[in-house]
Amino acid sequence: MRSLSVVGLYSLLSVAIFACGISSVAYGQDSSDLVEETDTVPEKEWQIRPKLSIGVGMLNYQGDLIASKGYFNPFQNRGAVHVNAAQAINDYLDLNFYMLFGSLGADERTLVRNLNFSSRLTSGGVAVSYNFDHLLKEDRKIEPFVSLGIEAFEFQSKTDLVDRYGNTYNYWSDGTIRNAAEDDEAAGNTVILTRDYVYETDIRELNADGLGDYPERSFAVPFGAGANLLMGNKMSMKVGMEYHWTFTDNIDGVTIDSRGVRQGNKQTDRFLHTFVRFTYDLTPVPHEEAPDVYDEMKRDTDQDSVVDFLDNCPNTPLAVEVDKFGCPLDSDKDGVPDYADLEINSEPGSIVDSNGVAFTDADFEQFYLEYIDSAGNHSTYTNTSYSIETSERKTTRKRKQYSVQLAEIGEGEAINDSLADVILSVPEVTTRETSDGKTVVEMSGFGSLEEAVQRKIDLETGGVKTGDVTEHSASGEKSRVSGIEQDIVARESIGLSVDEAIAKNKALPAPKKLILDESGYTLNRPIDSRSVSHATDEQFGDKPVYRVQIGSYANKLKTDVFDDVKDLIVITTKDGLTRYYAGAFTSYEQAAARKIDMIEKGFDGAFVVPFKSGQRLALTDAGATPVSDATAPSAQLSDKYGKVKFKVQIGEFTGQIPTNVLDMMMSLGRIDQRESESGAIRYFTGEFNTYEEAEALKEKLTSQGFEGVSTAAEYEGRIISASEGIELLK
Question: Counting CB atoms within 10 angstroms of each CB, which of 44, 460, 603, 694 has the fewest?
Fold first, then answer.
C-alpha cells in the first residue's frame, strides 16, 4: 500500500508539469493571435527550458515531543536531499517542481515520559518563488527570494523500544534504563541497558493509543526565504530555509487523542528544512539574431537585377540599364555612364569633362594659358576633372588629419554600457579597426597637430585619460606623433610642454564633469570647470548628439559589410552585443537624413539615437519630434527624385575672385561654376537629393565665415531656385 502513495506523489507532479505546459502553449497561442491582429510583434515560440537544481540540507522536527513553546533543538536535525526543476514565468517569478527525501526524528527523555521516533519522509510539490528582480540592480551578484507552495508527502514512523537482544527498555526514576520495570518483583536482579537507537517498531502497527490504521500520507504548505548567489549566466548557488506546515499530527505517533502521559498538543506536526543547492540554467543567453546570410546574398540594393555581392556598381540609380557586372552602360567608353553623358558618342580616346563632353582645341589652349599665366590675366577658378577615368575622379582629395586616442579595445574585450554611452555623447569621437583586430576609440578630424595637441591637453586637464596622438596621411597611412613633436608644438603655442601644461591644472579642486577612462579615474569623480581652459562643453556631452544605429549583432561582422559607411563607429559592450553607428549630428533633422541614406544602402533597421551628458536618451527626451513615416520622405516617391539636385551657392563674381575668398573655396574640394545671364560666374558646392541636406551644408559654411551663401537646385543641367526644386519633387 505504501508504494501506491509514492506513485500518487509522482502523479501529482506529472499533472502539475502537464498543466504548466498547457498554460505555456496557451500563452503562446494568445501571443500569436496578438501578432496576427497588430502585425507589429514577432511571434514568440514558447519552450520549456528549466533551471535544474540538486541540493542537500537538514530537516528539523517540531511537534508533540519536546514541545515547549518556541523550542528549536539543533540536535534533532536529520539529513535531507532534494531535486528541483524551475520554469521561469517572467523575470521575477519562477514555477518550481521539487522532490524532497529525508528523515525526521526526536528523543524525549523526562521524569514524566520517555518517547522517541524516527520517520522516513518523501515529499513532492509545486512552489512559486519571487526574486525581487524589478526592484534590484541588473548587475547584482546576490538576489533574495521568497517562496510559497503546496506539497504531498509520505511518512513511515518507527520507535526504538527494545535493544538488539530483544530486551524492552524500562526507564527508572534514577535515570537508568533496565530490562525490567522499577516496580517489578524481580527488580533487584535487573540489568542496566543502553539504547541502540535502532528504530525497529512501527508506531502505527504498535497502536499504543488505539488510533488504528491512520493514513501515513498528507499535505503541507511550505513557505520559505533565502538568497541566491549568481555565479555567471548559467550557474547559481541558493541558500535558504522552508517552514513546512503539515495537515497531520501523526508523524511522531503522538496526538491530542493519545492516552495518559503520551497525550500531545492540539497542533499539527511541522518541520523546518534548511538547505543549500546548486542550479544550472538550461535557458539560452538572450542575444540579437545575426542576419540571415542567404538573405544577404539575395540583397539587390539598387534593384538592377544584379545582387549586391556580384554588383561592381551597387548604387546605380533606378531604371538605369546596366551590364552583367551591374554597372551603367557607357557606350563611348569615356568613363561617364550613358544616363549622365551629355555627349553619348564622344570620339574614342577623347578627354571629356564631368558631363562626358569632349574638350576642344580651344579648351586646351585656355588650359595652357592658365598654366603659364603668372599675372592672373587668363586664370579662372575651376575644379572640373579632366580625365577618362571612372566617376571616382570627382572624389575630393583627402588632407592630412590628426586624432587623439581615448581607448583601445582588444579583440574579444568589451566596455560597460555607461562608458559606451559617455563615448557616444562626444561628437568628435570615432572608432577604427587595426590590423590585429583591436578597436581604437579616438577624437579625430583635427586639421593640424597644434589643434590635436591642444585638445589632448584640454582633455587631460579636464580629467579625461588620453593615449597617443596619431597622424593620418592623405594616402591613408597612420603614424604615431612622438612626445618630442608634441612638446615642440605645445611650447610654440602656450610656452609649456604637454606634461607641464597638464600638471599646471592638476592641483585644482575636485571637478564636476564626466570621466571617460576608468583606468586612471572613476566615472563618479567630477571635473572642475576651471580645469578646462579651451575645451568646449560639447566634448563632454552637454548637448544632444544624434547618431544613427544601423545594426546590433551578437557576433562581430566583417568590416567589408560597412565599406560604404565612412563615418562608422563600432562599440562592443559587456552584454555581448556589438553595435554599429553612423555619424554624429547636432540636430535630429540631419540625423534623420543620414538614417534615410542608411536605409537606401540596405540597412533596413536603422534608427536615430540621441546621447547627452553620457547617457542614452529617448528621442522625445532629447527634444526631437520625429515624423510618423520613419522610412523615407515623400520626395522619394517622385519620379524626379535623384534627378533634382540641391546645391549651395557660395558666391557670384565678375572677374577675379578675392584672394581671401579663393583660399576658403580651395579648402572645400569640388567647386562647380556656372555663368549667369549677366555674365557673372556663380560658384556652387555640394550635391544632394534633399533640400534639408543642402541647408545643413549652408549652415556649416556660414559658421566657417562664408558670407551670402544660399541654396539652389539643378534639374536637367539647368540651375533653378530651391523652391522650384522642391515643387518638382511633389
Answer: 44
Q: Strand order in 718-721's β-sheet?
A: 672-675, 681-688, 644-653, 710-715, 718-721
Grid cell, residue 420, equals: 559606451
**Selection from 420, 449, 475 nearest residue 615 by Cα:** 420
CA-only gyration radius of the chain, Å: 42
Q: Report residue 427 as a C-alpha cell.
A: 561628437
DSSP state of 162: B
**pLDDT tens-digit map of 429-471:** 888 877 777 888 888 888 888 888 888 887 777 666 788 888 8
Set of cell numbers at residue 133: 528582480
How far is Cα 142 from Cα 112, in angstroms, rounded to an integer?
Answer: 49
Buried/exposed 618-631: b ≥16 CB within 10 Å, e otherwise: ebeebebeeeeeee
d(CA 396, CA 393): 8
Number of other CB atoms surrounding residue 71 within 10 Å: 9
- The CA distance from 100 to 124, in Å, is 6
Q: What's the one-letter identity of residue 83?
A: V
Give the type of residue at 591: A
Residue 378 sits at the vertex; the CA angle it makes with 375 and 379, to the nearest 5 degrees, is 85
Residue with more model confidence, 480 or 662: 480
**Which residue, among 308, 276, 305, 277, has the nearest Cα to 291 in the 3D structure?**
308
> How many CB atoms neighbour CB 445 within 10 A?
14
Tell me the per-residue pLDDT of 476-506, one tens digit each, with 9 for 90 and over: 778 888 888 888 888 888 888 888 887 776 5
**3-state class (DSSP) for residue 343:** coil
Task: Take residue 181 and report the three cell numbers written for it.
Answer: 520495570
Element (H, E) at 461: helix 449-461
720 HSE (CA, 13 A, CB side): 16
End-to-end CA distance of the chain, in Å? 87
